[in-house]
Amino acid sequence: MPSIEGNQFDERDFRRGAWHQTATMVALLTTRAGERQNVMACEWAMIVTLNPLRFVVSVGPHHATHALIEESGEFGLSFCTDRQARLAHIAGSYSLNDTDKWALGKFPTYAAKTIAAQMIADCTLNAECKVISTQPLGDHTVFTGEAQWARYDPALQPLLYSAGKYWSMGAQLPKE
Ligand SMILES: Cc1cc2nc3c(=O)[nH]c(=O)nc-3n(C[C@H](O)[C@H](O)[C@H](O)COP(=O)(O)O)c2cc1C
After folding, report:
1. Which domains does the chain have, with CATH numbers?
2. Ligand 1: which residues within 6 Å by Cβ?
3. What is the tens place of the pLDDT at every residue in 120-172?
4. CB contact set of 83 (below 8 Å; sequence gap of 6+)
5. Which of 20, 40, 59 gets mutated to test ligand 1 (max ligand atoms within 8 A of its CB)?
6. Shortest CA distance to 91 belongs to which of 50, 54, 125, 120?
């Protein structure tokens, strides 16, 4: 199939085609404000600086998560392993606005040390973050969070997301 190019960004298929060519990790983005607590799947979550350790997340303004981050000024990131595709699917397919995702998915949780939101257990990397910048950007808002506490398990493998499907990492490749 020949490559596709152009500037037809107003066409949904063109935008989706470009997006489907990317591969990302999936984080479970947890939030809490008062009694409301939530978990949402977030593929647009990544480290942007190592020292200090900072993450960005890009969140649609209509997601319940968005309001909870704005209200609390913090969020938890729990990067999924390749055994957590089902949890990612549930967290990314339902909204706190109409569904109790916690009951649906039986998410394994543990109490964070520095933020109110719960963290998801058995993940490759967890980071408890305080928001240091909020940037509305087109159809999403980019929140930058500075890690207050982090934990990771080098034995676990990340879950990948590409073309709307879940994948595990393939074989390691030689550098030369
Ligand atoms: C694998 C996966 C990754 C997703 N990544 C993002 C993302 O990076 N940013 C975003 O705004 N929504 C993303 N979504 C969509 C939200 O997770 C979804 O709309 C969710 O229902 C919002 O939940 P909430 O309203 O309870 O916050 C993703 C969905 C899936 C399945």
Report:
1. 24-156 (2.30.110.10)
2. 26, 38, 40-44, 58-60, 63-65, 88-89, 92-97, 140, 161
3. 999 999 999 999 999 999 999 999 999 999 999 999 999 999 999 999 999 99
4. 122, 159
5. 40
6. 120
